[in-house]
Amino acid sequence: MSEQRVRVGVLGCGNVGAALVGLIEAQGDMIEARTGLRLEVAKVAVRNMSRERPVELAEGVLTNDAAAVVDDPSIDLIVEVIGGIEPARELIVQAVKAGKPVITANKELLANHGAELFAVAEGASVDLLFEAAVAGGIPLIRPLRESLAGEQVHRVLGIVNGTTNYILTRMSEDGATYGEALAEAQSLGYAERDPTADVEGYDAGAKAAIIATIAFGVRVVAGDVYHEGISGITPADIQFAQRLGYEVKLLAIAESAPGEDGVPDVAVRVHPAMVPSHHPLASVRDSFNAVFIEGDAVGELMFYGRGAGGGPTASAVLGDVIDAAVNLRRGSHATVGALTRARIRPIDDVTSAYYLNLEVADQPGVLAQVAGVFGDHGVSIRSMEQEGLGGEARLIFITHEAVERDVQATLHDLRDLDVVDRVGTVLRVIGAGAA
Predict the structure, then answer these.
(1) How does pLDDT run across 103-127, given as a tens digit for each residue?
(2) What does pTM read for this prediction?
(3) DSSP of 242-303, one letter per residue?
(4) What CATH class does 4-136+311-330 carry?
(5) Domain 347-429, what architecture?
(6) Is 207 part of the annotated catalytic residue set?
(7) Active-site residue among 43, 100, 107, 207?
């Protein structure tokens, strides 16, 4: 096949954009040998042209006019790695309406405006690809969209934020406090100076919304996702979990079940959870990510790898660039299919097993009073341990599966008991049918 040149416009040249430019240069010959296409980075749009960058660009490639890159008739496809909502949304719409495929790594944008952008791309019959938006270098979106298109996926759960997984690993393996582990993550560049989006679950929540949309074929936005972070987790919680045979992980969980009138019932949430030590997710360490998929016919699948970083993310972007370039030359495009409406199940209606610990007065009759509160709300106790605290006692419970609202009502009444000094950490428990 004779050489066919595909001119790429890149919007943004931070860690991912710079790594992508380097990969296209380094892998160009191999890509051409496999596809017959020569990728060329024709334009790179940045906000600050004077900033030093880790990649060399030919004269005339760098510009501060992103809209002009999108409008340039000599540019064949667009890569958006600037992040945020605007102007990214407007630029993507502008590009696809002009018939140009777009590759994006923008999880925030897709988690809030994905359905709109997918519809615009479908209407223009061009690709909008976003493998890098969810799990960095881990291939996940393409398997969900293509390989599992005929699979009835009913649950996806995973570790999709490397910052929090690194923090929890340090707390688990070294006994570090949350503050110590966070400071270490920041010093290594795993956590931002303001880590709120990571440690409070918002980053994972955006990814969970995208995963649910693609896995279940429904419209889910970031606002539909329940968030709970890890800042309240203590080394003692992790030690208790390990003693009971669990590891503590921040999980993104998306579930779908048949609902009334054919509208699927979907629950999407992010929160710390106790994962059985024998579960594959329990052994995912440091900044690595892993996503566990459960389907009717396929059973269980797990995707594992580096979920962040310039190199892994750029690798996923490049894979999409190659797909889009090949499709463009063939006059075809990928699709996420028609997205249907879902009934979003609130966290109050979710069922799970729970771990909780109480500090109570060490006196006769306390356990009976506490157990009575559980019974009043229909929350069944699976196991209980007691340890002395010098005049006080700690009671550690794991429940059978219970409805969230019943557990919250139980916690409310436990706090009102005179014999209960403090209700400690409450964690959901994954395993033995619990979700």
Answers:
(1) 999 999 999 999 999 999 999 999 9
(2) 0.93
(3) HHTTEEEEEEEEEEEE--GGG--EEEEEEEEEEEETTSGGGG--TTEEEEEEEETTTEEEEE
(4) alpha beta
(5) 2-Layer Sandwich (3.30)
(6) yes
(7) 207
